[in-house]
Design brief:
- The protein is α/β, with parallel strands linked by helices.
- The protein has a single domain, classed as Aldolase class I (TIM Barrel, Alpha-Beta Barrel), CATH 3.20.20.70.
- Helices cover 39% and strands 14% of the residues.
- It is built from eleven helices and eight strands.
- An eight-stranded parallel sheet has the order 7-6-5-4-3-2-1-8.
- The N terminus is likely disordered.
Length: 257
């Protein structure tokens, strides 16, 4: 398949704070990030704090170039689901994006391709942009199953979406073996998978694959972001640990490539 022109897709750098940052810590981080990234307009900046800090961060980023996202949500609009957060609540909190099916959700909390699919559809129902995560484990890669595994996750997670919906979503490829381990897929490994995912997305038709952003997630750091972003099918990053320090995340946002 011919390489897609990246100029058609504005890079997205998303910070997934996971279970870090109290409200006061979140405030300090956002204030520093606002100062470090002021005036940047040729790429999207997104922060995804814990639920407890969403409203505080929403107020802090209002009117800036920083967007707000949630790390997870339920697919039901409301109900007797103790401890869960609904799509309506996520939207009301000021979020524009929501991360769905992160590998840690799959590993520790029983997320499946089916629940990812239900949440993705629910996100679109509230005009939220889903960041759908896919990726293989080390055992699956060593067995040569990485393409098959990711294909199953893409097909299962996006089943039944309309082309008009699909072209608005974001995919995050996160090799599970590179999350929090300090290991990073080589630029070539990442590009191979991103190109494979884009080929799968072409099945939606109408050139949807040319509009869908595919992010890399897996131990992104200031010293590897430039090489990662030079790859033709990588449109940004889902950043974990490095997004918890304003200086590091600002450098990632200002990648050269």
């Amino acid at each position: 398949m011919a390489q897609v022109q990246k100029r058609n897709r504005v890079p997205l750098l998303a910070g997934n704070w996971k279970m870090f940052k109290t409200i006061s810590e979140a405030t300090a981080l956002v204030q520093a990030l606002k100062a470090g990234c002021a005036g940047i307009s040729n790429r999207e900046i997104l922060v995804c704090p814990p639920f407890a800090a969403l409203s505080t961060v929403r107020d802090l980023v209002r009117g800036t170039n920083i967007r707000l996202g949630a790390q997870n949500m339920h697919w039901q609009l409301e109900g007797a689901f103790t401890g869960e957060i609904s799509p309506v609540m996520v939207k009301d909190a000021g979020c524009q994006y929501v991360i769905i099916g992160h590998s840690e959700r799959r590993q520790y909390f029983g997320e499946t391709d089916e629940t990812v699919n239900r949440k993705t559809k629910a996100a679109f129902g509230q005009t939220l942009i889903p960041i759908v995560c896919v990726g293989e484990t080390l055992a699956e890669r060593e067995a040569g199953q990485q393409l098959q595994v990711v294909e199953e996750q893409v097909r299962g997670g996006l089943a039944g979406l309309k082309p008009a919906e699909a072209e608005k979503l974001v995919i995050a490829y996160e090799p599970v073996w590179a999350i929090g381990t300090g290991k990073t897929a080589t630029p070539e490994q990442a590009q191979e998978m991103h190109q494979w995912i884009r080929k799968l997305l072409s099945e939606f038709g109408n050139g949807a694959e040319q509009k869908i952003k595919i992010l890399y997630g897996g131990s992104i750091k200031p010293d590897n972001i430039d090489m990662i972003m030079q790859q033709p099918d990588i449109d940004g990053g889902l950043v974990g640990g490095a997004s918890l320090k304003a200086e590091d995340f600002s450098r990632i946002i200002k990648f050269i490539g």
